[in-house]
Every structure is written in structure tokens, then in C-alpha cells.
Write a structure and sequence with these properties.
Layout (H helix, E strand, L loop, with lengths): L2 E5 L4 H17 L9 E5 L2 E6 L2 H17 L7 E8 L5 E7 L5 H13 L4 E6 L2 E6 L2 H13 L7 E6 L1
Antiparallel strand pairs: 1-7, 1-8, 2-3, 3-5, 4-5, 6-7
Helix pairs in contact: 1-2
Length: 161
């Protein structure tokens, strides 16, 4: 019976590489020369601290660009609240989301069931396993899910006949 898994994952090493490239760009950009801008990674959180909100939004955009260059969708970033630090400086914690939560799993299952494609979907932790009798049905499910817009990037792995 053919199966495949629906996951939402990324390589932490790619995040680290993107942050190193971003650090290099910050040190070379003229508008960040005299600023105290820092960006760091702690487990599943990126912390940004800089002089003002304008520079913070610039750093957010640069971060998204660098992640996209490394093959990571910017949807994995959950922007936290902007906090005031000493003086005018600001700080923000960005959480990296990995895995499919229960609500999104139920939403995906509902979309597939409404399409009347004859497959079974089971929730396995933070992943979904799709199985069906025919390979074409599984490919139909993949194309159906690619058409829909979700809050997280989805990958389709472990396709087995």
C-alpha cells in the first residue's frame, strides 16, 4: 500500500548559516556601521536587538531573505512582541516553528476528506501519514495540498510504493 508523510521541518544548520551570513552583511552595511545590532540563535529562538524599530524591521527583512536563499521558507518564523530595552533600543524574540500542530493537522485532514480522494490520513506526533491503494491518489493529495495556502511550509517525504 503506497504511503507518504507530510511534515514541516528545516535544518537547524541552515538557520545557523543564514544567521552567520546576516551577521557578515550587518558588519558591512553602511546604515548599520555605528549601530549596536545583534542577532543570535538559542535552540528554537532567534533574538534580535538593535538601536531602533526601523533597523529592527530592516533586520527582519534581511533575515527572511537570507533564510529564503538557504532554502527555508520564511513561514517558519513566528515574530514575537517588540520590547523596549535601554534608551531607544529594541529587542525581539522570533520563534522557529517546526512540526505540524493539532489544529493544522485537523485542517489538512478536513481538506483531504472534502476532496473525496480515497486515502487514509493518520496523525503521528507532529507528522501526518497518508496511505492509499493507488499511487495516483497520493499524488492527487499532494497537488491538492500544494494548491492550498497554509501557515507553515509543508514537505512531502518518504513516498513508498
Amino acid at each position: 500500500m503506497p504511503t507518504f508523510d507530510i511534515v514541516s521541518k528545516f535544518e537547524v544548520s541552515e538557520i545557523d548559516n543564514a544567521l552567520q551570513n546576516l551577521d557578515r552583511e550587518i558588519s558591512q552595511r553602511y546604515d548599520f556601521k555605528s549601530s549596536k545590532s545583534e542577532i543570535s540563535l538559542d535552540k528554537n529562538q532567534i533574538s534580535i536587538s538593535t538601536d531602533d524599530e526601523y533597523k529592527l524591521t530592516q533586520l527582519q527583512e534581511m533575515l527572511k531573505v537570507h533564510l529564503t536563499k538557504r532554502g527555508i521558507d520564511a513561514k517558519v518564523l513566528e515574530m514575537g512582541k517588540i520590547e523596549s530595552a535601554a534608551g531607544q533600543s529594541v529587542r525581539q524574540i522570533i520563534t522557529l516553528i517546526q512540526g505540524i500542530n493539532r489544529d493544522l493537522s485537523k485542517q489538512i485532514i478536513k481538506i483531504v476528506k472534502e476532496s473525496k480522494i480515497k486515502v487514509q490520513i493518520s496523525i503521528q506526533g507532529e507528522d501526518l501519514r497518508v496511505s492509499g491503494k493507488k499511487r495516483d491518489e497520493l499524488q492527487d493529495v499532494i497537488s491538492l495540498l500544494k494548491e492550498n495556502e497554509f501557515d507553515l511550509p509543508l514537505q512531502f517525504i518518504n513516498f513508498r510504493d
